[in-house]
Amino acid sequence: MQLHRLIPAALVVSMTPALAQQSSPTLDFEYFKAYVQPVYTTKRDGNARCISCHAHRDVMHLEPPAEGSAAWSEASARANFAIASAYVVPGKPEQSRMLLHPLAEEAGGDPHHDGGKHWASKDDPEWQRLAAWVRGATLDSAPMTAALKPRIIQTNSAGDNVHIIDAATNRVVGEIHGIEVGHGAAAAPDGSRLYFSNEAEATLDVVDGQTLRIMAQIPLTGRPNNISSSPDGRRVYVAIREGSGAVDIIDTLTLTNAKSVPVDGGVHNTFTTPDGRYVIAGTIVGKNATVIDAATEEVVWTKYFDLGVRPIAFSSNADGSTHYMFVQLSGFNGFAVIDFETHEEVARIELPKIAPGKEPVLTGGNESHGMAVTSDNSVLVVDSRLNSAVYMYSLPDLTLLGSVDVGTSPDWVTLTPDGRTAYVANAGSNDVSVVDIHGRREITRIPVGQVPKRNITAMMPELMFD
């Protein structure tokens, strides 16, 4: 099964009426694995997970995920498929016990369920995806394309929630709960899943991109910091800051920790080069950027600095290969410029001094923390916590174009795919500044949670929050 097949279930509902007309549709095992089985481990506010009870019950006994994994073995999945199939009536979700027991009685559900009521109505996306399976939905019959819209995924480092911002309206359109001390974020290419490093529990939390509920937690080798993902979504790379340092490599198909690559020093951030060929691990204590080959998952070279390594951004050559690696450093209000091919530092650029009459922000994170390159490789956007501003540099010549004052203590930045807008996480004022990159102005500020830091731009289906 390919990850790109994990299309949000709401998008397959339109095909089910014709299937419902069949006298006896076949229940599809692959669809069950992709859409139905994850419902059993999903956490809903105020409810226990289905698996917490049904793994220990004789009635509809479910096999739990494999030990050390957030996913099921093939044998366990087959066993669960057989059990679940016995509790539904093919073609008739309204007569299927598995869909009626957890459904609220006022919505047409059974009067009582020892496991409680998980769905307030049949419009719940989880209920819809189970109903589609009962009606005969298959992975092959699901549409392969959907209109994808840019959403800003904003973690709150001192909170237990994540905000989802619609880049078209600059409104918060969704909120994820239950990820305490969320650090980094990544997304599947189709938006079907979101991934978050959970510092409080040392896990990688997997969130359903449609319901915004936590569907799995993958144990890590230590307390995590930031994360990144491969372009195809098959891998998530987790910075492990504890101990001697490592990058945990998560297989997103099996939801297992496939490999841990040792790094010289606790890892603060991981990044994937634009061409997807390399994973970069930056360490503060080790003062280095370690380059891992994404194909072999082995270290190929390491660049050491005189200061700790903070956020990293990249520019590309015409053929898509990496040209420059821009590196922010501990205690430095600026960035270093590394020629990726030669591994040599070719420049170190200090950001402008703070404007007269403006008070510097002396507490919080690093002096300069957060940077990104526009999709057309024409502009580098750089945060300054010290100056509470973002700066724009032209590429490849690195000429200063201008700056924009933002909220207090900007700590991270992500850009829209068209390269026109920057979303700056302001850790000191608990908001996100929306910045017109070319017009060099702040458009608005969006209130979010406690101490917002890492953010990403994810492409998600238009119907995701309808």
SSE order and pairing:
Elements: H1 16-20, H2 29-36, H3 50-54, H4 74-85, H5 97-100, H6 125-134, E1 148-156, E2 161-166, E3 171-177, E4 182-187, E5 193-198, E6 203-208, E7 214-219, E8 224-229, E9 235-240, E10 246-251, E11 256-262, E12 267-272, E13 278-283, E14 288-293, E15 298-304, E16 309-316, E17 322-329, E18 334-339, E19 344-350, E20 371-373, E21 379-384, E22 389-394, E23 400-405, E24 410-415, E25 421-426, E26 431-436, E27 441-447, E28 452-461
Antiparallel strand pairs: 1-2, 1-28, 2-3, 4-5, 5-6, 6-7, 8-9, 9-10, 10-11, 12-13, 13-14, 14-15, 16-17, 17-18, 18-19, 20-21, 21-22, 22-23, 24-25, 25-26, 26-27
Task: Give a summary of the structure in a few sentences.
It is elongated and about 70 Å long.
Q: Which key phrases capture this entry?
A:
disordered N terminus; 9% helix; 28 strands; 4-stranded antiparallel sheet; mainly beta; 466 residues; 2 domains; Methylamine Dehydrogenase, Chain H; single chain
